[in-house]
Amino acid sequence: MDPLQRQEAVQQFMKLLAENGQGGQAMDLSALMWYMDGMNRQFEAVLAELQEVKEQLAQEKRPSVRKAMKNAVSALEEKALAVRDKLTGLWEKITQCAANAVRDFKEMGVSALDGALSMLGVKKALEAIQEGVSSLAADARKSIENVERMGHDLRSAGAHLKNVGRALLGKEAQVVNGGQEGRFQSVVLAPMRATQRLLSGINNATLAAIGNVERLEAVAAKAREAQAERTALKPGKRLEKKPSVRKDLEAKKLEAACAVASLDREHKPPEAAR
Q1: CB 55 within 8 A of CB 225
Q2: How far is CA 55 from CA 150, 184, 188, 205, in A?
């Protein structure tokens, strides 16, 4: 399923929710997808900023400085790619299961809509992404602090050497305090600080998305309970095990469909999955 088809599947899914008295769920799902799209764009911006750092490092003539900073940036880039891949996988999983729910709606009715997202484990996946983003942000802060400290030490060492020369000439020594950031350090730190701000935005968006999922799950649970109560209170009908067994079979059918979609995605080559 290409990106356009996935988008159309989600739109159809939200339309069915709205048409079947679940407009609130449709709005929360729309907000969830909006947050996830924004997170993906911010990850692209993070990777672009880290690439800028790499380009600036290529101009550094001190091997020890270049190597230390390059290792730190490469670690950040690798971690950012891993977290972004989790987000991409979750996006594909949601859209595929939405397509399955649309397909099964004619046969299973509203229960196909109520159970679709609750079976995906979206909240757990988002929480794992949020943990990854928090860890990445902490690494970015540490890298920035290391670069700042390295620059301070280098400038202080340079100032000490200058004071030795001043002493030989009989001049008064200058106070050594590290001075302001040099041009090279500034152009390296600028994209790294931008990366940190972007990661903060991704973290906030992830927390908001988790809130949307919690509302989706709560509303879906209430809808299932209300449906069960309506079925039980219908006049002239006795409570039997058959309806519940049928509902269990329907739920298992949808869960199996979602699981198959997930396995298909996991076994695709990287190029096809994206």
Answers
A1: no
A2: 19, 12, 9, 29
User: What kind and span of H or E run contains 195?
Assistant: helix 183-233
pLDDT at 93: 86
Residues 6+ apart with CB under 8 A from 174: 159, 162, 163, 166
Token representation of residue 215: 């509302």
Assessment of whether the complete model's pTM goes beyond 0.85: no
As a whole number of angstroms, the distance between CA 154 and CA 136 comes to: 27
Angle at 27 between CA 24 and CA 31, to 5 degrees: 140
Q: What is the DSSP letter of 42?
A: H
What phi and psi values does residue 106 have, to the nearest 5 degrees? -60, -35
The pLDDT of residue 84:
94
Question: Could you identify the residue written with the tokens 């020890």?
Answer: 64
240 — phi, psi (to 5°)? -125, 165
- Arithmetic mean of pLDDT, 122-147: 91
Q: How far apart are CA 206 and CA 9, in angstroms?
A: 23
Helices (H), 21-62: 23-57
Cβ–Cβ < 8 Å for 195, 76: yes
CA distances (Å), 122 to each of 92, 178, 199, 247, in order? 11, 49, 21, 22
- Token reading at 75: 């670690």
